[in-house]
Design brief:
Order of helices and strands of chain A: EHEEHEEEHHEHEEHEHHHHEEEEHHHH
Largest sheet of chain B: 5 strands, parallel
Largest sheet of chain A: 8 strands, mixed
Oligomer: heterodimer
Radius of gyration of chain B: 19 Å
CATH topology of the largest domain in chain B: Rossmann fold
CATH class of the largest domain in chain B: Alpha Beta
Strand content of chain B: 5-15%
Order of helices and strands of chain B: EHHEEEHEHHEEHHHHHH
CATH superfamily of the largest domain in chain B: NADH:ubiquinone oxidoreductase-like, 20kDa subunit
Strand order of the largest sheet of chain A: 3-2-6-7-8-9-1-10
Number of strands of chain B: 7
Helix content of chain A: 25-40%
Strand order of the largest sheet of chain B: 2-1-3-5-7
């Protein structure tokens, strides 16, 4: 990515108007994506002018990282069968794009996806799109009832130093703009008041007041061990029976869930096959299917798989699988709350 | 290569599935080119109903005794047999009558029932083993293409087995159930339609029938909390899935 490049990490106060007009001037060269208001909801969509943006949004159903970098569904390549088999590579991803207004939870989620797709094994589709995408993060000042990012260290203000291009903080009619990459420095080298100690203190004050707005918290100490001790806790069974629909909404709206399925779609003469990748979900009976069926036959086992992957498996990447965005709670049709399940397990251990 | 011999059989239904094969947009020419149609009442005059068949497609619910007898014979003469459409897969619309006693239904519909020989409706897999389910009302194009091409390539067909919610999320639809409070059946309904209704800002009404292992009671409880009447909840779960365990179980919560 861009971390190695040498650049001036300048911090400036930029009037919002000039920031937006700079964005508009970039619209010819870049595809722009950002939060847009649609029928009382906010969603990340492609925009053609900055006027469409709704930067004061709270949360969106789908995260930008799983819409524009890791695509929900994409064709990877085709193969043709005549005498032999010929693989047809699709043209590499070359579109340059900018995602505007990514909240810290979602920026951290993209950093999490990087661990999967750009770790030991590089996913060429993800990597190409990631490199061609500029991320303009926006510190969050709109806390929703289901947000718990402050408990897992991924928000409301972004602490990560690299892996994205710019960090904005809302200062009323201006943005505090912190440049984090060379390409951002080049594109957004704008006139503005240099931000110093004083502005950083104001930023800290804003952060502290936002922190007070959180209503949902989770104590993360010892969660790994807590879940390992309680793999057969009754909470799994009764939540699965009474409320879990196995509809996979939780997994699909999760910004860090990276599982995918590969599907081959052939023409009837078998001459051409498309290989398609689309999001998969551990709540689905087909997910871990091998000869003889899914290892997790019980609904409770599949629900536990999701919750523990979010709250327990720090062994995988050394961080929690959750960024505390609360989407799985908000968009669960029956409102299953993983933080409440953790609390219930903890409480039952105390009672023993 | 010899073309596979195809038979299309119809029981109690609207014959829409057979027409769907004709209107099979992207694949109709391929289908006609690659299969030999031996028997298909809506597509072909005459035909040979006795087989043998490499592939049999069966639409419709079994609602009369003779249909069950004939179905068993077709099974024996067919290498592969697929249930096509919600009626054959789950009982579909004709199975609504299984929510009341058979005689009551007959008397409601016919003035004179002396010549009526109906039986309790069932999906075809209540009588015979099937090799796959092409779900939907009308059947989804993707699953239909998958079934037919799997016959041509001699592989196990890979049918869609997840909820409508998955298709909604892949399309990026805002959830009509959570965001707008519509009583959407999507979470318990098998996908394959491309989330057609929610994409048009309407609640899913489960025309593809229940997803395997769907948790009907949990969604019925949610509907109850949303303030839907008992009758309304019952209608939603028995419109297409009255003969299925997954949806039948949802009615239990209406008793509490």
């Amino acid at each position: 990515m861009t971390g190695e490049d040498i650049f001036r990490k300048f911090k400036k106060l930029i009037p919002k108007e000039s920031f937006f007009s700079r964005l508009d001037s970039l619209a010819k060269k870049y595809r722009l994506f950002g939060p847009v208001n649609i029928k009382n909801q906010t969603a990340f969509r492609e925009i053609h002018t900055s006027k469409e943006l709704f930067m004061e949004y709270k949360s969106t159903m789908l995260s930008p990282g799983k819409l524009f970098i890791f695509r929900p569904k994409e064709e990877l390549f085709r193969f043709h069968k005549n005498e032999g088999i010929k693989i047809e590579e699709l043209p590499p991803v070359s579109e340059q794009q900018i995602i505007i207004g990514v909240h810290p939870c979602d920026t951290n989620a993209i950093l999490y996806l990087d661990r999967t797709f750009m770790g030991i094994y590089k996913d060429p589709y993800y990597e190409a799109r990631r490199k061609n995408t500029m991320i303009i993060s926006l510190n969050c000042t709109n806390v929703s009832p289901n947000c718990f990012c402050s408990s897992v260290g991924s928000g409301p203000f972004l602490k990560a130093e690299k892996g994205y291009d710019m960090l904005l903080t809302d200062f009323g009619d201006r943005y505090l703009m912190e440049i984090k990459s060379k390409r951002a420095e080049e594109l957004f080298n704008m006139k503005g008041k240099k931000a110093g100690k004083e502005e950083m203190e104001i930023k800290r004050d804003i952060e502290n007041s936002v922190l007070e707005a959180f209503t949902k918290t989770i104590a993360v100490e010892g969660l790994d061990e807590l879940f390992l001790r309680n793999m057969d806790h009754p909470v799994w069974q009764h939540t699965a029976e009474e409320r879990c629909l196995s509809c996979s909404n939780c997994v699909l709206v999760c910004p860090t869930c990276f599982c995918y399925d590969l599907i081959d779609e052939s023409s009837m003469d078998m001459k051409m096959t498309r290989r398609i990748r689309q999001l998969d979900a551990c709540q689905d009976m087909r997910f871990a299917e091998v000869y003889g069926g899914n290892f997790r036959q019980r609904r409770a086992a599949r629900l536990r798989q999701f919750v523990t992957h979010k709250l327990n498996q720090t062994v995988q990447y050394g961080v929690y699988g959750t960024v505390g965005c609360g989407r799985c709670i908000t968009w669960c049709p029956t409102g299953i709350d993983l933080t409440e399940m953790a609390i219930e397990i903890r409480r039952s251990e105390k009672d023993m | 290569m010899k073309k596979p011999r195809l038979g299309f059989f119809k029981y109690s239904c609207c014959a829409g599935c057979e027409f769907q094969v004709m209107y099979f947009q992207k694949h109709v020419l391929e289908t006609l080119k690659n299969f030999e149609f031996i028997f298909a009442r809506m597509l072909l005059r005459g035909g040979n109903p006795h087989g043998p068949f490499d592939i049999a497609l069966v639409e419709g619910t079994i609602t009369e005794a003779w249909q069950a007898d004939e179905l068993k014979k077709i099974r024996e003469k067919s290498t592969l047999l697929f249930a096509i459409g919600s009626c054959a897969v789950d009982g579909g619309i004709p199975a609504i009558k299984s929510t009341m006693p058979e005689l009551d239904v007959e008397s409601k519909v016919y003035a004179d029932i002396t010549t009526i020989h109906s039986i309790r409706p069932h999906a075809i897999d209540a009588y015979i083993k099937v090799d796959g389910y092409i779900r939907g009302c009308p059947p989804g194009e993707r699953d239909l293409a998958e079934a037919l091409s799997s016959v041509l390539s001699d592989k196990k067909p890979d049918f869609i087995n997840y909820s409508v919610c998955v298709e909604c999320k892949l399309k990026g639809n805002v959830c009509v159930l959570v965001a707008y409070g519509m009583p959407c059946m999507g979470p318990v309904t098998n996908a394959g339609c491309g989330a057609l209704c929610p994409s048009m800002n309407r609640a899913c009404y489960a025309c593809f029938g229940p997803m395997k292992q769907a948790n009907g009671p949990a969604l019925a409880r949610k509907f109850k909390m949303m303030g839907l009447s008992k009758e309304d909840i019952k209608r939603r779960f028995t419109e297409f899935g009255a003969d299925t365990l997954e949806f039948r179980r949802a009615l239990d919560i209406l008793e509490d």
